[in-house]
Amino acid sequence: MEAPKQTPTSKAGDWRSYQRVILPPVRDLHLLDVALQNGAYTALEKILKEGWERKRLVDEVKASGLRGRGGAGFSTGLKWSFMPPDKPGQPRYLACNGDESEPGTFKDRQIFEYNPHLLFEGMMMGAYGIGAHTAYLYVRGEYADYISHMERELAKAYAKGLVGKNLFGTGWDCDIVIHKGAGAYICGEESSLMESLEGKRAYPRIKPPFPAQKGLWANPTTINNVETLACVPLIVHKGASWFAGLGAPKHPGPLLYGVSGHVNRPGVYEYPTGMLLTDLIYEVCGGIRGGKKLKAVVPGGSSVPVLTAEMCEGVTMDAESMRDGGSMLGTAGVLVMDEDVDMVSFLRRTTHFYHHESCGQCTPCREGTGWLEKLVTRIDEGEGNLRDLDLLISLCDNMEGRTVCALADAAAWPVRWTVTRFRSEFEAKCKPSLVPSGFVSPETLGEAVADPGYVLSD
Ligand SMILES: Cc1cc2nc3c(=O)[nH]c(=O)nc-3n(C[C@H](O)[C@H](O)[C@H](O)COP(=O)(O)O)c2cc1C
Ligand code: SF4
């Protein structure tokens, strides 16, 4: 007998009465005095004054279930535990990834603007957990205003002895360095971020060695996203079990959802993980603009697979549900598209971005992103044919998993899934052709040329 179909429900509990913790509604929280009145730096003070072993902090973060908010969703505590044992005289580093260049992702900048001291505290706690005394904050160059404002606030924290030498009289030192990026998407990939920090061109490195073995200046390094590190003081304040009990059990905690596109109220919203995507769109963001119908959603930044409107039903905002629902949580940057969106034109814009941002080191990515853009442009301009659709998928096959970094995958996934899930729109824009769809091998091509019944369109 067939099992009754379960109606999927939100894992975010009573999210309507949720009280924000990463971006609490406190006026002028970005200013040090106000932040101090609201408990800033007290989690760091606690672990230092109570003399926590590093391992205790790492275990606490592991127990909280915190997973990286930079896109891949890897366990933060586990990542910290990959750092090798201390070697006398060898420095180690924490790098905080604030490059935030993925289209549709704009949540870290809310932390820069509204709660930078939570981030500074989280960075120092991260440094403590991995045994580092220097933490770099790599911020995308376009965030120039946030950078100046964070530099001012950081200077105040130094002047008050909250960052720097002998913190809270415990003898523990930690410096924070804010580094302005040069404005390329690839700088957000962790190994190219390190190259860029070292003053070189941001070419991703081949892994292994991983950053924990050989990171900044060949020393052990851990890289974490801004939102990830901002969660760490909260875990110490409120306890790992509080964090683990919030939202989706396998992917818990508070989450910044950045919603853009055709909703009535786009913006960054803080709620527990595991919200129903439809609650986010229709309740939090007030539904689709102009009372139109939903057509498609890219739920985690531009690189993750697009969902059709039907696929959005019942899916929740956590890694597992998104995977089962046919996409990825990524950065929780949700792009909403209404019924009027031309999916070919949407994909044309996306392929242009990835082609432009490929660093050019690997052939499948350098050439593949160019081919993807050219083919999608050709289809969009009414000059494509059905074979181009199969060629696009075949190009994706030759890009995914075959390059130094994941930019090639990020470029291929939108193509694979937009063409597959909205194929009829692509077909409708193709030139009428007698050539059947199906990948054209050299043999088929031979047959086609020999058979006058076939007409090859250009
Ligand atoms: C092309 C590319 C761009 C990326 N851009 C960012 C970014 O802007 N911010 C970010 O935190 N992670 C970005 N990542 C992921 C990082 O490589 C890394 O996984 C992340 O910073 C780790 O932090 P987390 O474990 O806290 O999520 C990018 C990855 C790739 C492949
Ligand atoms: S996959 Fe693309 S962006 Fe990444 S290293 Fe290769 S060429 Fe550069």
Account of the protein in words:
This protein is α/β, with parallel strands linked by helices and 458 residues long. The protein folds into three domains: 23-244, Rossmann fold (3-Layer(aba) Sandwich), CATH 3.40.50; 248-338, Ubiquitin-like (UB roll) (Roll), CATH 3.10.20.600; 343-444, de novo design (two linked rop proteins) (Up-down Bundle), CATH 1.20.1440.230. The chain has helices spanning 32-37, 42-49, 54-64, 76-81, 108-114, 116-130, 144-159, 190-197, 226-238, 240-244, 277-284, 309-312, 319-324, 343-357, 363-380, 386-397, 407-421, 423-429, 442-450; strands at 93-98, 134-139, 164-167, 172-180, 221-225, 247-248, 251-252, 254-261, 267-272, 294-298, 307-308, 333-338. Strands 3-4-2-1-5 form a five-stranded mixed β-sheet, sandwiched between helices. It starts with 31 loop residues before the first helix and ends in an 8-residue tail after the last helix.
Keywords:
Ubiquitin-like (UB roll), binds flavin mononucleotide, Rossmann fold, alpha/beta, five-stranded mixed sheet, 3 domains, binds iron/sulfur cluster, de novo design (two linked rop proteins), 458 residues, disordered C terminus
Beta-strand proportion: 5-15%
Q: Can you tell me the residue ranges where pLDDT is under 50 for at least 5 consecutive residues? A: 441-458
CATH fold-level label of the largest domain: Rossmann fold
Mean pLDDT metric: 93
Bound molecules: flavin mononucleotide, iron/sulfur cluster
Question: In a few lines, what is going on in this structure?
Answer:
The chain is built from 19 helices and 12 strands. It is of the alpha/beta class and 458 residues long. It has 3 domains: 23-244, NADH-ubiquinone oxidoreductase 51kDa subunit (Rossmann fold, 3-Layer(aba) Sandwich); 248-338, Ubiquitin-like (UB roll) (Roll); 343-444, de novo design (two linked rop proteins), CATH 1.20.1440.
